[in-house]
Amino acid sequence: MKSYKVLLAAFAALALASCAQKASIDCTVAGSPDTQVIVKQLKLNSYDILDTVKTNASGHFRYTVKVAKGQPEFIYLFHGDRSIAALLLESGEKAVVATDTLGAYTVSGSEGSEKLQEVDRRYSDFIYKMAEYVNLTDDPSLPAGTRSAIQEEMTKLYVSHYRECVKYVVGTPYSLTVIPVLFEQLSEASPVFSQYTDAILFKNAYDSLCTVYPESGYVKSLGREADRRYKEMSIQSKIDQAGSVNFLDINIPDINGEKRSLASLDAKVILLHFWSSSDPEQKMFNLDFLKPLYSQYHSKGFEIYSVCIDADKARWAASVKSQGLEWINVNDGLGTASSIPFLYNITDLPSSFLIMDGNISTEQISGVDALKRVLSRELK
């Protein structure tokens, strides 16, 4: 009898756990008896169709969605191609939705869904108003002055909406509803958050959401997008800060962990050299060619700024020390994920550039002998 009770308790625990991994939708579509509703799950930039359900004679249906604990899901209800409700469901929630085929909906019983409804409505209003302006400007008979006035209003509308979005993301840091806000689009090729400095907002949102939903696939995707935007911001920042020198600065750690800036060097001739310490031939190039050149011309104003594109910093540092490479050796430890190769459009290793008097040389240098001739000419 005792073992029977234990078994019943185990089944009860399993049943509770199973219920906790689900959320339910209780939906009524006004004036739509026997109508098909498509249930879709958001995958950040696309949808997966979960099911197609049919309303009863009263336009009502119930649906259960699998939702893991700590991993809320974005669920959208569609009538044909039109979204008629947007939901953010936690495990165990019971969302009650009242909508129509035009997408005028209300939701209760789900805190995240209620917030998402506000986000969805604000975005829909914005897109609708922008579309109205676009339709007006498409009129070929529109006077130039009127067209300019409408375009100015479009700009004001965009700026106002952008600021509202920033305010929402900053003011609601622990809600997953910030994710669809960050990925809003004017069109397929025009995101609302299009400034490279928006990377900071993406990163801050990711850091906050990680503390609440570390296992969420949406949060992980946000993290990847934040990393991509940070890389772009880093490149753009270097372009903006190029200043008086006509090359892009690199400022990453050397083997002692101290950052060394390419732009800070005052040598007359600098060899900017990209390489990999995992390639024996490139290591031999250091010993057979670069070391003799450095020994001969360094005192005359020659410097080498050597950038290793390896993720294994320990192996790189060991190579530098064992080969006795006395010039500047740097590595950010990011390997192929580093933004540094993109700055100089590096596609093959090794690759080198000559910088003379603050400018990247356009002179064709083919081989070590040609490099020697340049050094002997410039560093007499």
Written overview of the protein:
- 24% of the residues are buried.
- A five-stranded mixed sheet has the order 15-14-13-16-17, with helices on one face. A four-stranded mixed sheet has the order 4-1-7-8. The protein has a four-stranded antiparallel sheet with strand order 3-2-5-6.
- The chain is built from ten helices and 17 strands.
- The chain has 380 residues and is of the alpha+beta class.
How much β-strand is present in the residues? 15-25%
Give the overall pLDDT as a whole number.
Answer: 87
The number of helical segments is 10
Roughly how many Å apart are the termini? Answer: 100 Å
Radius of gyration: 30 Å
Helix and strand layout, with pairings?
Elements: H1 2-20, E1 22-29, E2 36-42, E3 47-54, E4 60-66, E5 73-79, E6 82-89, E7 94-99, E8 106-108, H2 111-137, H3 144-171, H4 178-182, E9 185-187, E10 190-191, H5 198-210, H6 217-240, E11 251-253, E12 259-261, E13 269-275, H7 280-297, E14 302-308, H8 313-323, E15 328-330, H9 340-343, E16 351-356, E17 359-360, H10 368-378
Parallel strand pairs: 1-7, 13-14, 14-15
Antiparallel strand pairs: 1-4, 2-3, 2-5, 5-6, 7-8, 9-10, 11-12, 13-16, 16-17
Helix pairs in contact: 2-3, 5-6
